[in-house]
Amino acid sequence: MSDIIQLLPDSVANQIAAGEVIQRPASAVKELLENAIDSGATDIKLIVKDSGKTLIQVIDNGCGMSETDARMSFERHATSKIKKADDLFNIRTKGFRGEALASIAAIAHVELKTRRHIDEIGTRIEMEGSEVKSQNPFNSPVGTSFSVKNLFYNVPARRNFLKSDQVEFRHILEEFERVVIPHPEIAFSLHHNNQAVFQLEKGSLKQRIVALFGSNYNERLAPLEQETNILNLIGYIGKPEFAKKKRGEQFFFINKRFIKSAYLNHAVQGAYDELLARDSFPSYFILMEVDPKTIDINIHPTKTEIKFEDEKSIYAILRSSVKLSLGKHNITPTIDFNQEMSFANIPLKSDKDFIPEPTIKVDPNYNPFKTSVSSTSYKKSESVLNLSNKANWEKLYESIRAETEQHQKPAEKDREVIHVEEGSQVFQLHGKYILSPIKSGLMIVDQQGAHERILYEQYVNSIANHKASSQQDLFPKTIELSTVDAELVKELSAEIHGVGFDISEFGKNTFVINGIPADVTNADSAQLLEGLLETYKLNLIEIKIDKRDNIARSMARNAAVKSGKSLTQSEMQSLIDRLFACAMPYTSPSGKPIVTTMAVADIERLFKK
């Protein structure tokens, strides 16, 4: 039998590697931007067409490459970053494995133009599917220009799996943010379809954050800074009053590399204990510098996951640093961390100061049985007190009697059906549950889950039939969103209007909310829209559903009556009637139960000895 194991051709091996490293246009954007940063550039331009499907171009003013290095850069595992295995634990650059350019060249038409400052003329290389089409001298400026055209042209199945232009561009924006935030010392620009999206000048970290996410972040952030022998921290954390109902802008960077870490997120969230509602999440932009020898960044193809040598210490320092920042900026009630003024103002006595011996004053004529209140007046006071107490007790018993009679009345009414009949009395428990007697015993309804189910089915129908009703605001509200959220609004424009929003664009990343869904009352239109977007993004991560269903779920979640809301009899009755008119009244859109019952026999069993 002949041998069956053979080496793959480089073209095939590069396509396999590309499947791990380059999953979509945003992946290529990330790799090219990181290479530009590693080159020492101070000005980096990103140009994108058709959300990266037609063109991705990165131009930098970095060190450039020689003719030989330019050609070698497209070989697999060819890198200037490491020479031996030990170098993997002393990495401070973005890239190091030498896979990115080889992977990109395997699935696209690539053009590289580069020149070093010591060279009079540069180099131009054209590649197609890992094959060098041409290499010749070229008069290019100092630095590197890397153009990727027709991504996945030779892997049509991969290209067919790409999402719409709006979705792919949103992913590009997310990668752009993750790269530019920790590098405010570098100027960045982003153009999409010949339109300027970002023009980020060099500046401070806060200026970079504000330029990316909007001027309202000026007042939303508190500085964070801490130096220890394990790690150094700088960055900004969101003030509690600006927390969002879903996870918003949350960024961790280790040695200026974006990472994801549920463990570190838990540390930050824990620092906000007793400052945030249970379902609220703060924003944060935290840069951590650690010794590269104490971390391992080579555990994931995208390098967004990191192993720490001493993660418990990192956790403790991070959590205490966030709490310290909250305290220093008067966000939490605490003593001054430098010096409490009430203690500082206490004068200190020297050894020469005379301290007088304390004395005790005694009144020899004091009679404890003598009172200034006469017996008559005392009896009068006692009488008034007793009468007052008697009246209060009588009032208390009257209220208890009335309340008891009120609760006994429904027991005499008909309990024959699970659908509460018109005129039947229902009760609210702790602002969360609606109770109603039925033939078999007692029905308990989760009011928030019930309202979510009602709204969800209503919004699904409205989006499908394009028949949503909107209530116009007397004073339209202007809202400024981050670029990512602004693109998301544009992407979901039809669905957002389909649930009843009346929104129009008003300049870059700014929108005017003219109206909100007609069935939403007493809601802040801006908060309602932001909550919708945050829930939508969270659903994209946790569940795989189409965008119409996602919008309907997200809107229902944010518009539903919340636990703790007191409802009138008519409101509770209407809620139950509308619930049982739904196609699926017994479970919420997320699958949680809405209705449960207790049989009379089970209730009686509770009172038996």
Q: Find the CATH topology of the largest domain.
A: Heat Shock Protein 90
**Main CATH class of the largest domain:** Alpha Beta
Shape call: globular
CATH superfamily of the largest domain: Histidine kinase-like ATPase, C-terminal domain
The major pleated sheet works out as: 8 strands, mixed
Please give the order of strands in the largest beta sheet: 5-4-3-6-2-1-7-8
Number of strands: 22
Overview of the molecule:
Helix 2 (25-38) runs parallel beside helix 6 (165-180) and helix 15 crosses helix 16. The model is unreliable at 333-352, 371-397 and 403-417 (pLDDT under 50). This protein is of the alpha+beta class and 609 residues long. The chain is built from 18 helices and 22 strands. The strands form 5 sheets. An 8-stranded mixed beta sheet has the order 5-4-3-6-2-1-7-8. Strands 9-10-13-11-12 form a 5-stranded mixed beta sheet, with helices on both faces. A hairpin with a 2-residue loop joins strand 11 (250-254) and strand 12 (257-259). The chain folds into 3 domains: 10-203, Histidine kinase-like ATPase, C-terminal domain (Heat Shock Protein 90, 2-Layer Sandwich), CATH 3.30.565.10; 210-328, Ribosomal Protein S5, domain 2 (2-Layer Sandwich); 446-595, 2-Layer Sandwich (Ribosomal Protein S8, Chain: A, domain 1). The longest helix is centred in the middle third of the chain and has 34 residues, at 375-408.
Descriptors:
609 residues; alpha+beta; Heat Shock Protein 90; Ribosomal Protein S5, domain 2; Ribosomal Protein S8, Chain: A, domain 1; 5-stranded mixed β-sheet; 22 strands
